[in-house]
């Protein structure tokens, strides 16, 4: 179909829509939203070129290559008619100075085995030598030696019945956050940890570059810090000349690892585990681990692009992705960066056709996410009050494409909007269906996850400020995660050969952004929120402990449902006057903020959201009612009257927060 004919069809559709619309604006926006999804606006070749350019060299945070990538994004934003600027912070980052690992086998006559700790160069990548040596960000420096002990995935339950006191623990990736593996090992008495990528989880009969699977020498690197943001500026932004706490104070705060650790390959782990008695240990093999890290104050750069809203410039729809990568970052994170640039280019085309958003759209390319979500966290901390009063929603794209299959996570008032947007986009792997139709027919049946984990840049928005948020992607976990093999070749051969999945995720994410920016009434549905909370409360009821009374929580959720129905009815019946529309939208926007508490979670005060937050024992694990969950874990462990009374206190705290959200939705003073 020719572009003029396609444009005529879209115009006819928009005019037909306007005949049934009582408002002068909806048909205007409908035309542009339809145009945004049109084939003439998407460009898979441009996406591929952007991704190839961004992933040409490894670009760890603080490096010259990452600064080059920032300049590229800034140029792309400028070319897309955004108003771009760079926000810099000076933050604490670590890099490896020395690493060594050797094994003393149990036979007295055996020579020590010294591991190279290097990933094998495969393929013809000319910049493979620039990859930073394998290490853990913020790992503790030290030299330790001890018998080998195997702890499976490093979860709390994996240490039950295993004596790791004085041992060097070997654990595998796959179930919980690596920083929690190190912490669990430390609390169990271990002196060091090595973490490997098990071929049972990440390997296949063939490996990259012949297939998608991790090679035996592949190593998953990553951070082991258990907090968010710059460790030396806890709770405030790392602007030039700011207050900083000492490295000693950082360590005393408890978010830094207490013992040294290293990431290793499956091949090295296989050699080590052969020396473990009964497959668990400890010993008789002895592992010697040495790591020395270098801590620096480095400059990081967030690249920000703005399209100012015509009617409500002080209401912000924020779309974000991070740029820095442990290695080349074709999936994590630059598939998301390529999607962000594709959205920018399409919005530029809309502006050239006459579109102006009702509300301001802000595109953000974060830096230093891999270390501790630093770029986004520092920006949120610096702009906390502005965001609390003006942010409509935050939309995140991190590992945007790693394979087939649409997935989404969100705060529940956005569930319906995500489904509506997915119904408007063709599935890139089955063009006879929409993304939504393929999604509901998949193994996860259209299920929408929640944003309680600390896995990506939505965390500061949701968990610190209480901004509604979305995270979406095609694919999911992928074998070469955080290794040197996550490069353009892997993406081109296995992740998205035609780059149509990138096009599709840009369409869904971009349409959600447009609806949030342009709809007269914000497309939030808190009935979905109340339904989700009801399920979570019912799970608590199943505990059946005599000291727990969930009725206050159930009552507050019923009040939220009533308030949600009331505001939905107000929107359906229509209201007159811009101020009245604004008042309803403010109630919709601010209800999520009411679910935060100024004191935050007990022992974790930075996390303000009482409904969604990370598990205390797994930063990648999303928890509903995290404060209640923490209290229950403690009560089960100590089983005292006071501990169970604390569980009830946490239930009351959540109940009060949900009641506050109900009052905000109602817009009434008591």
Concise account of the structure shown:
The chain is α/β, with parallel strands linked by helices and 670 residues long.
Topology:
Layout: H1 3-19, H2 26-36, H3 44-54, H4 64-79, E1 83-104, E2 113-114, E3 136-137, E4 142-150, E5 168-172, H5 178-187, E6 192-196, H6 199-202, E7 222-223, H7 247-253, E8 261-264, H8 266-273, E9 286-307, E10 312-322, H9 334-352, E11 359-366, H10 369-372, H11 374-382, H12 384-390, E12 391-396, E13 406-410, H13 415-422, E14 426-427, E15 430-434, H14 435-440, E16 448-449, H15 458-465, E17 469-474, H16 488-495, H17 500-518, H18 526-541, H19 551-573, H20 578-590, E18 612-615, E19 618-624, H21 626-638, H22 641-666
Helix pairs in contact: 1-2, 2-17, 3-9, 4-9, 9-17, 11-15, 13-17, 18-19, 19-22, 20-22, 21-22
Walk me through this protein's architecture.
Helix 3 (44-54) crosses helix 9. Residues 1-24 have low confidence and may be disordered. Helices cover 39% and strands 19% of the residues. The protein is an alpha/beta fold and 670 residues long. The strands form four sheets. Strands 1, 2, 4, 5, 6, 8, 9, 10, 11, 12, 13, 16 and 17 form a 13-stranded mixed β-sheet that branches. A two-stranded parallel sheet has the order 3-7. A two-stranded antiparallel sheet has the order 14-15.
């Amino acid at each position: 179909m020719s572009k003029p004919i396609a444009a005529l069809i879209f115009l006819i559709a928009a005019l037909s829509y306007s005949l049934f619309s009582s408002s002068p604006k909806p048909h205007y926006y409908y035309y542009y939203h339809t145009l945004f999804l049109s084939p003439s606006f998407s460009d898979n070749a441009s996406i591929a070129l952007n991704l190839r350019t961004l992933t040409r060299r490894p670009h760890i945070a603080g490096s010259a290559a990452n600064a080059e990538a920032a300049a590229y994004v800034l140029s792309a934003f400028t070319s897309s008619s955004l108003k771009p600027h760079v926000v810099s912070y000076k933050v604490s980052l670590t890099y490896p100075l020395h690493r060594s690992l050797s094994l003393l086998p149990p036979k007295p006559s055996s020579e020590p085995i010294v591991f190279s700790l290097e990933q094998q160069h495969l393929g013809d990548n000319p910049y493979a030598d620039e990859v930073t040596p394998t290490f853990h960000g913020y790992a503790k420096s030290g030299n330790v030696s001890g018998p080998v002990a195997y702890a499976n995935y490093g979860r709390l339950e994996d240490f039950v019945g295993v004596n790791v006191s004085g041992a060097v623990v070997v654990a595998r990736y796959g179930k919980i956050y690596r920083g929690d593996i190190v912490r669990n090992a430390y609390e169990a008495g271990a002196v060091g940890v090595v973490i490997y990528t098990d071929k049972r989880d990440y390997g296949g009969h063939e490996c990259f570059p012949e297939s998608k699977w991790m090679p035996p020498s592949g190593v998953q690197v990553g951070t082991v810090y258990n907090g968010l943001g710059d460790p030396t500026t806890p709770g405030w932004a790392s602007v030039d000349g700011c207050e900083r706490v000492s490295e000693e104070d950082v360590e005393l705060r408890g978010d830094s690892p207490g013992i040294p650790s290293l990431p290793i390959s499956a091949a090295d782990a296989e050699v080590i585990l052969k020396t473990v008695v009964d497959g668990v240990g400890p010993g008789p093999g002895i592992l010697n681990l040495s790591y020395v890290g270098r801590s620096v104050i480095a400059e990081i750069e967030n690249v920000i692009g703005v399209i100012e809203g015509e009617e409500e410039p002080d209401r912000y729809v924020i779309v974000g992705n991070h740029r820095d990568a442990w290695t080349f970052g074709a999936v994590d994170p630059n598939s998301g960066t390529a999607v962000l640039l594709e959205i920018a280019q399409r919005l530029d085309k809309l502006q050239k056709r006459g579109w102006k958003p009702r509300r301001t759209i802000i595109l953000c390319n974060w830096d230093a996410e891999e270390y501790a979500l630093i770029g986004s966290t520092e920006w949120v901390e610096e702009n906390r009050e502005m965001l609390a009063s003006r942010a409509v929603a935050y939309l995140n794209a991190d590992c945007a494409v790693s394979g087939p299959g649409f997935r989404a996570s969100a705060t529940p008032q956005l569930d319906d909007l995500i489904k509506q947007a997915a119904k408007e986009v063709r599935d890139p792997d089955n063009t006879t269906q929409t993304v939504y139709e393929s999604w509901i027919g998949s193994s996860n049946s259209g299920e929408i996850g929640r944003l309680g984990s600390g896995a990506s840049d939505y965390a500061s928005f949701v968990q610190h400020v209480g901004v509604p948020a979305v995270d979406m992607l095609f694919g999911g976990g992928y074998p070469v995660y955080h290794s040197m093999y996550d490069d353009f070749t892997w993406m081109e051969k296995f992740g998205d050969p035609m780059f149509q999945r990138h096009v599709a995720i840009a369409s869904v994410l971009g349409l959600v952004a447009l609806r949030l920016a342009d709809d007269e009434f914000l497309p939030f549905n808190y009935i979905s929120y109340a339904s989700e909370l009801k399920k979570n409360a019912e799970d608590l009821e199943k505990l059946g402990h005599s000291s727990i009374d969930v009725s206050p929580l159930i009552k507050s959720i019923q009040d939220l449902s009533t308030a949600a129905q009331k505001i939905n009815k107000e929107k359906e019946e229509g209201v007159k006057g811009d101020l009245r529309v604004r008042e309803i939208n403010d109630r919709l926007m601010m209800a999520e903020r009411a679910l935060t508490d100024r004191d935050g979670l007990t022992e974790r005060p930075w996390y303000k959201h009482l409904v969604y937050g990370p598990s205390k024992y797994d930063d990648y694990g999303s928890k509903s009612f995290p404060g209640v969950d923490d209290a229950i874990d403690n009560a089960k462990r100590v089983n005292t009257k006071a501990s169970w009374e604390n569980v009830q206190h946490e239930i009351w705290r959540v109940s009060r927060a949900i009641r506050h959200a109900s009052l905000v939705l109602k817009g009434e003073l008591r």
